[in-house]
Amino acid sequence: MEFSGKRVVVMGGSRGIGRSIALGFAKEGASVAICARGAGPLEAARAELAAFGNPVFAGPCDLSKADQIAAFIPAAAAALGGIDVLVNNASGFGQTDDEAGWAASFDVDMMAIVRASQAALPWLEKAAEPGKPGFASIINVSSISAMRASTRSAPYGAIKAAVIHYTASQAKMHAGKGIRVNGLAPGSIEFPGGSWEDRRTSNPALYNSVLSQIPFGRLGEPEEMADVVLFLASRRARWVTGHTITADGGQLIGP
């Protein structure tokens, strides 16, 4: 129960990778706050988290809206009694190379990280010990799409690359305060209701093409991403900052 008594905020924690990250922290004893736009999935995730017996806070938040982030972070900190770990997980999944596609990725994948991090910083500073890196940390979720060119989702990949750069910059900015900043770059992850589950039937050619690139012969699972995030937030990673870990089952090195 390494995270017993710790306060964790997961931005976009009602489904998929975010939900698994929130559940992973709750299983390890943390108090957890989550947000999402959809009331139904948000309440379902809140009930799952509450079953572990730790304090839980769930609030609606459209992460493309600066004012909603500015309201959610203080509410989460008040409910949990502070913030030790901030996980920026949500994505706008901008796909099309047009104004709408770029806006979707920029507003959520990039600016939500900037805004949530800045809003949470006062509480992270209180949780940190200058010169002694430990639990106080930010973890930003990027993607392996950041690491190769794409004709299918140019805005998504480009902004996720910016997230990796910003993660390293944040780490450098906040190291003196005792706050670590790292990232996770997932490969293709499949879960109920997710885009890859849909593509299995709606676009089997794409699904099978991606599947053929993964040496282990399957897509990843959200719980496997959560395990990496928990490591990055733990004392086992206390000397790790400014890095983005790829967790893709070898997808980038596949055929």
From TrEMBL:
Q: What is this protein called?
A: 3-oxoacyl-ACP reductase
Please name the Pfam families in this protein's record: adh_short_C2
Q: Which GO terms describe its molecular function?
A: oxidoreductase activity, acting on the CH-OH group of donors, NAD or NADP as acceptor
Name the Gene3D superfamilies on file. Answer: NAD(P)-binding Rossmann-like Domain
- Superkingdom of the organism of origin: Bacteria
Similarity comment text for this entry: Belongs to the short-chain dehydrogenases/reductases (SDR) family.
Tell me the GO BP annotations in alphabetical order.
fatty acid elongation
SUPFAM superfamilies associated with the record: NAD(P)-binding Rossmann-fold domains
Coiled coil (residue ranges): none
Organism ancestry: Bacteria, Pseudomonadati, Pseudomonadota, Alphaproteobacteria, Acetobacterales
